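Quick one:
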Amino acid sequence: MMADLDRWLDAARSGPSDERLAQMDAAVIRGVVRHRDRTTARRSLMLAGLLAVGIGWAGSLVPGARAQAAPLPIGMSEYAPSRLLGQ
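Output:
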């Protein structure tokens, strides 16, 4: 039984090999790199999501000041012509 297996392995070893086997290393490495890139992108997206949820949660805990109207419109000086003319 073992002798048959040894003869079969010797025959397989001495026979011509498929040319696709020589290209297999590059294909495997490309697949590993693609998988690693996808995993990195997923982790970055999950981290960004968790950070956004954390900031939103922390922002909801901080009490806000009451809203008050500004005494003058933004950018309007007390020395503006309309203020000086009493309009």
